[in-house]
Amino acid sequence: MNNEHFVQRERRLPHWEEHGRAYSLTWHCVEGLTLEPPDRDIIAQNLRYWEGERFLLHCAVVMPSHVHCLLTPLLKAPNVPFDLPGIRHSTRSYTAHQINKRLGRAGAVWQEEGHDRIIRSPQHYEAVAQYIINNPVKWGLVSRPDDYPWLLYQAVG
Fold first, then answer.
1. CA distance 115 to 105
2. Most C-beta atoms within 10 A of its C-beta, which of 82, 107, 109, 118?
3. Residue 29 bridge partners (DSSP)
4. In terms of CATH architecture, what is 23-152?
5. Could you give phi then psi for residue 141, rounded to 5 degrees?
6. pLDDT in tens, the chain (157 residues)
7. Chain-centre distance of CA 60, in angstroms?
């Protein structure tokens, strides 16, 4: 494509970026690691820290084994958005360091590759937001989404 606002990055999975779009991001813990409540607090606090600075956080949920986010990158300079690899790296790197520090361990916390998807329409946005909001209920962790402490969704809508 010949669009200066569209970027494709290759790893094992292709990662597509388009300036001004919202994204669904998911990343998982390495096998055998479960995020305990203090770990989920670290991740939720980190997402809140960057909300409004690097991205608009529409909603997110920190589950025992993975994280889902619906966000839109903000601009770091005129017409230059924060890129998804940078957002993903800073969030995963900081939280992994803090979780390892808390656990007194070293090593990977997150699987190497996460999933991201450009939001294609208002209906897609709504479906992703509802999926994220209802994830703790789907997993049987709570009976109502609002009862899950690591669900961030005040900006949805």
1. 26
2. 109
3. 110
4. 2-Layer Sandwich (3.30)
5. -85, -30
6. 444 554 444 455 455 667 789 999 999 999 999 999 999 999 999 999 999 999 999 999 999 999 999 999 999 999 889 999 899 999 999 999 999 999 999 999 999 888 889 999 999 999 999 999 999 999 999 999 999 999 998 644 4
7. 6
Q: Which residues contact 94 (CB under 8 A, 6 or more apart)?
A: 46
Return the H-helix or E-strand segment holding 157. Answer: none
The pTM score is 0.86
20 touches 80 (CB < 8 A)? no
Phi, psi for residue 144 in degrees, rounded to 5: -130, 140
Distance separating alpha carbons of residues 143 and 97, to the nearest angstrom: 32
